[in-house]
Specification:
The complex is a heterodimer of chains A (about 300) and B (about 260). By secondary structure, chain A is mostly helical. Helix content of chain A is about 70%, strand content about 5%. Chain A has one domain. Chain A starts with a strand and ends in a 5-residue tail after the last strand. Chain B folds into 2 domains: about 190 residues, Immunoglobulins (Immunoglobulin-like, Sandwich); about 30 residues. Chain B has 7 helices and 12 strands. Chain B has a 6-stranded mixed β-sheet. In chain B, strands 1-3-10-9 form a 4-stranded antiparallel β-sheet, with no helix packed on it. In chain B, strand 5 and strand 6 form a beta hairpin. The termini of chain B are far apart. Classes of the chains: A mainly alpha (about 300), B alpha+beta (about 260). The interface between A and B is large, with 60 and 62 residues. Strand 5 of chain A pairs antiparallel with strand 5 of chain B, so a sheet runs across the interface.
């Protein structure tokens, strides 16, 4: 069934979009990631204009994050104060990101910028995850079971900065400067890449801030919901690029897929899951990198008037 | 200002074209539909353009030919070219096109180049390259022509620009009909539809009307809202997303408890 999308102004098969939302939701439920990093490039591939894909992808992230956040809230694994600080930075970052996005759009370089961000981040995260899970599998085979890594919460540069605040749920007494900076960085990524940024924030919270792992996911989801919602509003107000029909189709598939995925996820081994996810991330990265490196079959592209070149 | 100037130009062109010696043949035209509604499940539409030629005198010896054009709303745009910089392909040069129709189809009884002379084409802007107006390219771009060619090539590949030779059916030099396919990726606006009669490659009569292409129902509502009340629209999208996330988690919890 063909569906005409009022903002994207293209006609797309509705089942394809439902399926796409479902698959991304399934993966995000299985692996505990937002799925934005998969959704946005997949939307590019099926011919949705990049600006619309980035802006509309945020609706799916909000939906799946709300769904997961509620589960964490019931388990009381959310540090609301830390979330609030990250959020403050995130709002600033999202504002900067949307400004940068609009500036690049005027220059005609937005596609390049988004693709470059994807290649760099997906490449880095994918390779790290692949190596990490490969060593974990090897170690598990040798030891006959998973080995817990030693807890490593030594004092580093993060703990000597001023303006210290007590974060009770996380059991931390640290400066608010690093969380604000992390928040800004993730906000910028959200606006430019149309992703939640969980895949950057979770490692940053564990390794830089030294937060306990059990509160990290819930807290990052809390911040992702608000920053992504804010980004969506900014895109809707400044660019009019949020397509509600596209968003609804994606998130209908997405939320159902996420719930099913979460149930499959608990039945698989963690290392195997991670290595599959790493391969998936690297595959998306490889496809985008090839587009940049190989000579495109069509050198010309048509854009709106008003480019400042 | 530009719109006024364009209207003036068109009016001027029309007044030059109209009074011709032996303008005894007139076009009477009909459309299978005078408006196209873009609904949620819009997948393109075929428009049948048909008509008859009214004349008071005997049919002249020279062969009569009919040309039909359908043009979507025009807009200025930018064509960019990728070039290899530091090993990757990036947009470098750009050329501004002053005005290009979002859709353009030209159908004729024969080969367009054979039924229409260059001068007449220039006067009425009938062929695809002439439907695009590009005045000045920046000095830094040496081959601006290739940008226009690329525009035509890309839009032709997307089914937006079409030259349909031998696709107007003319009977007894009087009745004609042609079917033009409007693709699914249409933009809104008035689609200017023109009929030209030519003899010996000269235009002897013309007729003009327009097809109204419009988003209707939900499409119309969402599009208008996104542009006139962006904040409200954004909030609506947000509420939908939050509700879907909450709904799914609540729904599956209930199902699991029962199951």
């Amino acid at each position: 069934m063909q569906m005409y999308l009022p903002i994207a102004e293209v006609s797309v098969n509705a089942y394809l979009l439902l399926g796409l939302g479902g698959i991304v939701g399934l993966l995000s439920g299985m692996f505990g990631v937002g799925g934005g990093f998969l959704m946005t490039p997949l939307l590019f591939f099926i011919g949705i204009p990049p600006a619309v894909a980035v802006a509309t992808g945020t609706t799916q992230i909000v939906a799946s994050s709300v769904s997961a956040f509620l589960a964490h809230l019931r388990r009381k694994t959310v540090d609301l104060r830390m979330g609030g600080v990250l959020l403050g930075g995130g709002m600033v970052g999202a504002g900067l990101g949307v400004l940068a996005f609009n500036y690049l759009k005027a220059l005609g370089q937005v596609d390049l910028m988004v693709t470059l961000f994807y290649v760099v981040f997906l490449g880095t995260i994918g390779s790290l995850m692949f190596i990490e899970s490969l060593t974990a599998i090897r170690r598990a085979r040798r030891a006959g079971g998973p080995v817990k890594s030693a807890k490593n919460r030594h004092r580093n540069w993060v703990h000597v900065l001023p303006i210290k605040v007590r974060f009770r749920t996380s059991g931390l007494y640290i400066s608010i400067i690093p969380p604000v900076i992390i928040g800004i960085g993730v906000g910028i990524l959200t606006a430019i890449m149309g992703v939640g940024g969980g895949f950057i924030m979770v490692p940053a919270m564990i390794y830089l801030l030294g937060m306990p792992t059990k509160v990290v996911i819930g807290t990052s989801l809390f911040q992702i919901i608000f920053v992504t919602a804010f980004t969506m509003l900014l895109h809707a107000v400044t660019n009019q690029t949020v397509d509600v029909i596209l968003g609804v189709l994606l998130l209908l598939g997405g939320v159902v897929g996420a719930q099913i995925g979460a149930r499959i996820g608990v039945k698989l081994k963690a290392e195997q899951l991670r290595i599959l996810l790493a391969l998936l991330v690297l595959a998306v990265c490889g496809k985008l990198a090839l587009d940049l490196l190989l000579m495109p079959s069509e050198l010309y592209s048509i854009g709106d008037a008003g480019g400042s070149q | 200002m530009i719109r006024h100037a364009a209207t003036l130009l068109i009016a001027l062109a029309l007044s030059m074209a109209l009074p011709r010696a032996g303008a005894t043949e007139e076009v009477v035209m009909g459309l299978s539909q005078s408006s196209v509604s873009i609904t949620t499940n819009f997948a393109g539409s075929d428009i049948l353009i048909f008509g008859a030629i009214k004349r008071e005198t005997a049919i002249p010896d020279e062969e009569l030919e009919v040309i039909v054009t359908v043009a979507g709303p025009s807009a200025p745009l930018t064509v960019r070219r990728k070039d290899r910089r530091l090993g990757i392909w990036v947009n470098t040069e750009a050329v501004q096109i002053d005005s290009a129709p979002s859709f353009y189809a030209v159908a004729a009884t024969g080969k367009l180049a054979e039924v229409l002379s260059q001068t007449e084409d220039l006067r009425h802007r009938i062929s695809i390259p002439l439907a695009i107006r590009s005045v000045g390219a920046p000095d830094t771009v040496g081959d601006a022509q290739r940008f226009t060619e690329a525009l035509i090539r890309i839009r032709s590949d997307n089914g937006l620009y079409e030259q349909l030779d031998d696709s107007v059916d003319l009977q007894e030099q009087t009745l004609f009909r042609s079917s033009i396919r409007l693709p699914a990726n249409l933009t809104e606006g008035a689609y200017r539809t023109r009929i030209f009669l030519t003899r010996g490659s000269e235009v002897i009569a013309q007729y003009e009307t327009s097809i109204d292409v419009r988003k209707v129902g939900l499409e119309r509502y969402l599009y208008t809202m996104a542009h006139s009340q962006p904040l409200l629209y954004g909030l609506m999208a947000l509420v939908l997303a939050v509700a879907a996330g909450w709904g799914a988690s609540a729904f599956f919890r209930v199902i699991l408890r029962q199951g």
